[in-house]
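Closing statement on the tryptophan sub-project.
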Amino acid sequence: MHIRNPSTYHPPLMTTTVKPRILTGDTPTGRLHLGHWVGSVERRVALQDKYDCYFLLANMHAFTTRADKSADIRQDTIEIVKDWLAAGIDPNRSTIVLQTEIPAIAELTWFFAMLLSFNDVMGNPTLVHELETKGLADKYSFGFPMYTVGQCADILAFRPELIPVGEDQEPHIEMCRKAARKFNQLFCGIKSDAKDEDYPRLGGVFPIPRALIGRIGRLPGVGDGKQKMSKSLGNAIFLSDPEKEVQKKINKITTGRQSPTEPGDPNNILFKFVEAFITDSARVAELKDRYQRGDNIGDGHIKQELAVAINTLLEPMRARRAEFEKPGGDDLIIDIIRSGTARANVVAEETLHMAKQAMKLDFGKRSVRWT
Ligand code: TRP
């Protein structure tokens, strides 16, 4: 694979980008699964041509709960890039960004922390849910709630138009929009009744970016369909799973249906998967119809068809991944991270400078040199 040389990027080029920008990211906590694919990654791959895309490795966020596992976080960061590239993210078109090497993000986090209220942060439904479900109780770090403010900075550092994310991220995006409006009102003189889409035209530093929610908001995990697909619940089909493993996991889906002639519910867990992964819509309609009527169609048969469809999706990913699993693969990934991060710093520094100008903090212009 050809890796861009960071030294070929010049600030003036970046300031005249014509394509609108996208920013999104993942916290490196482990391998990506099908839930990530239908929730966001699929969209990212598809939008690479039309948009100037920035994909952020939120490795600082991984430290909010795993500060004692820095070696794991480093490896997970590398592995998630392998997943991205396998999925079809092209580092020659899109920019891969390492959060901890973008100083502007850390600085902007402070600015936005001043604009959001304590209750905005602590009442963020996704954060509340995480505090409840991750067993963090009263022992979570100060940095844990802070990540939500950091996420506003991750996004706004790139002044994107769109943020392709899964449903669970919507409260974070809403917070980010709030921070952007507040900044523009306070420091750029924009009236509070201005329409979101008018902010850039009225002289705002930050656009008010929109979330782009995936095709499937919530993919269930394999099992009875009650839980969403998640690595920690052990019910995930990973993008890197081998063919046989996919079939084995699909077989774990349970519907409670007893026989091929029993009328079934065409909205049950099995059909959530059918709708997500069988691409021929006429075939999906036919399966639903026969299932509903109990027209001699067994769950086992559907599972087999499903496994074939999923393996068809994953096969090209396996092939692309093989390139990075060879010796030296990790070094290649690190080169890609470095090259993207160098490019990303140009944009983020430009944003930071604009923000500082608006805040009357422009006592000089700094540049970040990346080597
Ligand atoms: N919080 C996101 C997640 O856990 C990851 C993330 C960090 C992110 N920064 C972002 C997503 C900026 C979109 C935009 O999945």
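The chain has a mean pLDDT of 93. With this model delivered, the sub-project is considered complete and its resources will be redirected to Aim 3.
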